[in-house]
Amino acid sequence: MAVYALTGFSLVSLLSFGYLSWDWMKPSLVADVATDPMEKSPPPTFTRPPHIIFILTDDQGYHDIGYHGSDIQTPTLDRLAAEGVKLENYYIQPICTPSRSQLITGRYQIHTGLQHSIIRPRQPNCLPLDQVTLPQKLQEAGYSTHMVGKWHLGFYKKECLPTRRGFDTFLGSLTGNVDYYTYDNCDGPDVCGYDLHEGEDVAWDQSGKYSTFLYAQRVSKILASHSPKEPIFIYVAFQAVHTPLQSPKEYIYRYRSMGNVARRKYAAMVTCMDEAVKNITWALKKYGYYDNSVMVFSTDNGGQTFSGGSNWPLRGRKGTYWEGGVRGIGFVHSPLIKRKRRTSWALVHITDWYPTLVSLARGNLSNVQGLDGYDVWPAISEGKESPRTEILHNIDPLYNHAKYGSLEDGFGIWNTAVQASIRVGEWKLLTGDPGYSDWIPPQTLTNFPGSWWNLERLTDGLRKSVWLFNITADPYERYDLSEQRPDVVRSLLMRLVHYNRTAIPVRYPAENPRAHPDFNGGAWGPWATEDEGEEWEGGRESLKSRNKKKKKCKICKLRSFFRKLNTRLMSNRI
C-alpha cells in the first residue's frame, strides 16, 4: 500500500481554513456601488431568451474560493454561488487553450486538432476556421455578442480573431499572458510586444490601466449602451489570476499577515477579481438585465501551485490530468433557476456550455454535428440527472511518452506510454505521464524548514504508466486500483481506443519568424495574409538588429525564474 507523509501540520487544521468576514456595503474600489448588487427580487417568468454572462478566470485553484474553505476573501463569488447552484462535479481542461477551445466549440480537443499544449504566439495556428463557434450560434439566435479579456485561440491571420469568430466587439489580449498594466508579452528573449486590442486594432491608449479594472468597466459600459429588451451574450475571460503576480497595493495590504509573498499577491488578485464580478452583477441590476439573466462562473484549469495557487486537497496542479488540474470551480447564478441554493453533483464538463447556452437562447442545434457536449440545464436548474456519463480528459500523442509504458501493459489494445485520461461513471483512468502528482497544501505558513511549498508525497508506485481511481469514493486519488481491477482498466482502455479512432491529426506547427512584434509596429497581431495557407515551415533565424530601443520585458525574466523553480520542484520529487 502507498505510504503518505504530511509534514508540519495536520490535515484537519488545513481543511478548517475559512475566509475572513467582509463588509458587503463597503463601496468597491473598481467602481462606485450605490446598492447591494444581489438584493432579492421576485423570480421572473422565463418568457424570452435570457441574457448570458459567462465569466472565466485564469489559473484560479480549486481551493481558492471562500466556499471551498480558502483563506482568500471571495464574498461576491461565495454569495452568488450560495444563491444559485454550485457545481461540485465540474471538469475543465488542465491548461488554457484546450479549455477555451472546448468552451467555444463544444468539442473535445481531439476533434479540433488542439490536443497538444497551447497555441503559442509565433505559431501559425488558431481555432479551426471550419468550427461554428458558440457566439456565432448565439448571433444566429438574435443575440448581441461581446468578448472582454483573454482570447488565446490563435491570431496569425485576421480570420482567427474574435471579431471574425462570432463576437460583435472585443477588448482584450490575444496571447496567453501579459503584464497587467503595460500589456507587454515576451515569448522569449527580445521577442516582446504589446498585446491589448480593441476590435481588430491595437489599443495603445489603454496602457497603464489594471486589466481586471479595465475589463469590468468595459462590461458595465456594454450593458449601459445596450437595451435589456434585446438578448446579449458577454464572455468575460479575466486575465486574473494568471502570472505575473500583480495587484494594486490596497488589495495586497489586506493580506499583509500572509507570510508567503507569492500567496499574498495571488490572494490580492483573486479578491480584486471578486470585486470586479460584484460590479458586473451590480451593472446587470442597474441597467435592467438581472431578472432575465444567467451568469455562469468557471475556472479554466487548476491553480499553478508555485505561483501562489492551491488545489488542496486535490492531487496535482495546472498542466496535469490529476483532479487538481482538471476539476474546476463552477457555479450558475440566475433568477431563472427553478431549484436554487443547492449543490449539484451532476457530472458537467466545459464542453457542455455550448449546447446548454444555445438551447437556453432558443438557438438551432440541429445543424451542428459532432458535439461532445450535452445540454445540462435541466440538471442545473431542476436537479435532474445529468445526461453525461463520461468525460474524455484528453489523448495527447505528442506529449513525452512514459518511460515505463508499453502496448503489453495496455492488454495489447493501448500503448500506456501515451498520455491520456478518461472518466467513465465513477472510474477514472490515466495512462502515460499524467504530470506532477503531489498533494500541495495551501502556501500560507512560513515556519517550515527548506521550501515553502512543503508537499505531501506518494512514496511508491513511481514506475507506472497506468492508474485507476474510483473518483466518487476517492476524489483525492490516493488509492490506485489498477492492479485490483484489471477488468475496469481494460474497459476504460477500450473507450480510449474508441475515442482515438475519431481523433483528427494534431495541429502544432513550428513557430514562424514573421510573427515577431517588430514586424507589426511593436504589437502582437496577425501576420499572414488571408489567402495564405495554414501550413508553414517554421524558422529559427534571428532578426537583424534594429536601431530603435527595445522594450524591457519583465515577464521574460519572470518566466525564466518560474522555469528554474519548476525544474527544482521536479528534481526534488521522491
From TrEMBL:
Any single Pfam family the record assigns to this protein: Sulfatase
InterPro entries for the chain: Alkaline_phosphatase_core_sf, ARSB, Sulfatase_CS, Sulfatase_N
Residue ranges of the TM segments: none
Any one GO MF annotation of this record: sulfuric ester hydrolase activity
Cofactor: Ca(2+)
Coiled-coil intervals, chain numbering: none
Protein's name in the database: ARSI Arylsulfatase
Lineage, highest ranks first: Eukaryota, Metazoa, Chordata, Craniata, Vertebrata
